[in-house]
Amino acid sequence: MDITGRKLFRKALEEEDVDTVFAYPGGTVTDLFDELYKKEDIRIVLGRHEQALIHEAEGYARSTGKVGVCLVTSGPGATNTITGLADAFYDSIPLVCFTGQVPLNLIGNDAFQEVDIVGMTRSVTKYGVTVRNREDLGRIIRMAFYIASTGKPGPVLVDIPKDIQVASGPSEYPKKIEIRGYKPNMSVHIGQLKRAYKMLKAAERPLILAGGGVNISHANALMREFVERTKVPVVTTIMGKGAIPTNHPLYIGNCGMHGRYAANMAISKCDLLFSIGTRFNDRITGDLTEFAPGAKIVHIDIDSASISRNVVVDVPVVSDATLALEKLIDWAEEKDTSAWMEQIQEWESENPLAMRRDRGMTPQMIMEHINKNYAGSIFVTDVGQHQMWATQYIELEGESQMITSGGLGTMGFGLPASIGAKLANPNREVVCITGDGGFQMNIQEMATAVTQGTAITICILNNDYLGMVRQMQELFYGKRYIATCLRQRPSCPLGCKGPGKSCPPYVPDFVKLSESYGAYGLRVQDENEIDAAFEEAKKHTDAPTVIEFMIASDELVLPMVQGGNPMSQMILK
Predict the structure, then answer these.
(1) Residue of 22, 33, 35, 50 marked active site
(2) In the chain, what is the greatest distance between 2 CA atoms, to the nearest angstrom?
């Protein structure tokens, strides 16, 4: 029996066990929304901006491992998703984004709200397609979910013209799909993996580098077992944080541009770098000629295109982290790494990760109180200095997770992603760590958070500035602060070097703004107020609580490596 395209769309979501759709309506998707009106077990989350609803779907997907689903209209609705799709693409987050499109006979005629969204997003999606035949609709939707969730996960865009939605066609939705030219790797080359492990056994100063692929593959327990069996120390990328508990004695810390001194030194001095699930991007490697200069490098990654693209490796292994670690555990034997660990501990003692405690409330203090009050929670960050402080000081153990924008570094990610994470995990505490700049980029999602009843705790670290750029201006541009002060007005003097008594007031008042949305707002100016603020936030179970932490404008994220320099050349003070 034939059914309309809109009915098949609803059926496809049912078959894919979709329980939440992050959506914004418009003319070319009204039929699809009307069909979902009849489906009570699919929750429609109305974001307040299409970019934000993609980030909400990312938070949902990252916290659950399920595919996030979005639905937006054509034209500006579709183009507003591009930043979110790019963010998901660079961080390997499985999404399926459905966009409406003008009828087939109008495509190419500059019709109202017509854009070639497939062409626009080709470089930031795993796959994109416009449905041009009603008979192909079921196969294409099934293909979208399969591609998004297999191999290296990523976003897929399905563009559905309005006439396809109402046209009749086959009701079948395929259970399985075969895609010519797309064969995700489901195995591991045992010979290559054995070569890699033999090198690990022979190394005197081995080091495991765990990237985001370990978290994406949910291989955390396997990673911990492998590390404990071999006694090989571990460093992580920012996206890999949590691959092993942060309080584990063999965990050194994050490496890279703002990595721990001991972690970067360990990479610089190791004789074998055993990497799993990382792209070796520039924020990790710095000067490629000086990256792990004396080490043999093993690279295990599910994406063959990532291997030897940035760093030429000695043993490539194309494999999902879970499959590789399962095999490695079978062979794992304990190594004597005591002398190597002693050297690493010496580096840690020389330059421990710590901020001064004689200047009032610091970001480190805030993170320590978050650790104390929200152990085992889901932590979502925005992008900027606060993100780096969170990745430096937040403790991850047990079921705790950290969700952040790594590859694209998207300001405005934190608030909507925390909403998506909370909707997916209503019984878990979700903490959003954001800056005053990033929070304002998608601040309209406070309305989404309130209407959805998401009781997240939002921690705004307010330093009056776009802090990360201000830090670069201080260190490398002679303190020429331009377009980074969020208090600045045309009446301000040129060449201002920092806030003073004559500065205009900060806009907005985050406490009053939160209350205007129907949320709760608090302001904290001293460390001894932090625990009471968190206790108050936990009482509020019907809406978000925004806590504005007033921190110094000149706090820096340290260590720091200037872009392009070797990771061993760290600015420490």
Answers:
(1) 50
(2) 75
